[in-house]
Structures are given as C-alpha cells and as structure tokens.
Fold this sequence. Notes:
CATH topology: Four Helix Bundle (Hemerythrin (Met), subunit A)
Order of helices and strands: HHHHHHHH
Structural class: mainly alpha
Number of helices: 8
Helix content: over 70%
Strand content: under 5%
Amino acid sequence: MRMFNAGARPGNERAETSAVLTMPNVITVLRFLGVPLFMWLVLAQKEYGWAVAVLAIMGSTDWVDGYVARRLGQVSALGRVLDPAADRLALIAVALTLVLGGVVQWWYLAALLVPDLVLGTASMFYFRSHPDLPVSKIGKVRTAFLLIGTPLLVLSKLSVPGAAGYSAAAWALLILGLIGHWIAAVNYFRAIVAKGRPVRETRLGDNGRGGGR
C-alpha cells in the first residue's frame, strides 16, 4: 500500500488509489480535529460565538474532500470509509457536547446514536468490519440538515437579534435530519443484510469444511 499520492495521471481521474496520505484524507482528518476545539469552546470556555464559527468551517468544508478527491484523482478506499465515518463521529461528539452543555436533551443524542449502534453491530456480524457501502442520497441530505441546524441552534443561545427564529429554524432542520437519519439507517441495514448474508454463509461454510478436516 502506497503512503503518498501526489496527483492523478491524465485520464485516470476516476481510478481508485490505494494511497493513505492523500490530500482529501488529510482534509477529512483536519475537519474532524475541529471537534475537540468545539468541545473545549462550549464546555470549558462557554464561547458559543467561536463554537459557531468552528461548526460553520467544519460544515462548509464537508464537500471539499470529495471535490478534491475527484479533481486530483485521489479517490481512495480509505477515503470512502474515512469521510462518512469522520462525519458521523463528529456529529455524535458535537451532540454529546451540546447535551453536556445543556443546549439539547439526551433524547437527541440517543436518536443519533441508536441507529449507528445497530448498523455497527450488523456490520460486525456479517462482515467483521466496515461493509463498504456507497453513501446514499438520503444520507447526504441528512448530514447537510444536521450540519446546518447544529450551528444555528448554538447561535440561538447567543444574545443576538432573532435568536428565537434561529432556534425554530435549527430545530426544523434537526428534526428533518433525524428523520432522514433513521430512514437512511433502515436502508443501510437492508443493504448490509443483503450484501452480508452470502458473505457470512460463505465464511461459515469455509469454517465448517476446515473443522471437518
């Protein structure tokens, strides 16, 4: 496995690279590093204004890694797993921070976490690893709603004009995001079962033949 991939060859923009340290993957990791900064600003400093700025930067760069990957021909197997995983972990960590900071209730975190726990369990059961499924359109829309609604909700906690309107808009987006989250989870679960059932049957068959020798 190569560690670096400086760029793409002409005509090979859509080829998947095995490189690990690519520009899109670096962008994904840097975006995820905004999470501990956000947690520190909210929980330790109560600096909601700067926290909104961090969330806005994280949300606005969410599409950048994918664009760069396609532009430079650096689409990688790691990136296809890393990007959605980093987004999901970031959303959960931010939700946990908002719960601890008294901005949202525990049910919001549970609504995000429960589907992911079910999907993670199903993935380990069938694949013993990541199922490597494509990101659905519903999943992308869900993420967009959550990434826009969360900073709006934090912004509504500031003493700014229209705070009540920001709160209403934030919750409208977050509820739509949660609905999309559960719909996407149901679709992913079905896809995991459909793809994983023959994989598991093959694995069990191989183990049975091996045990009989």
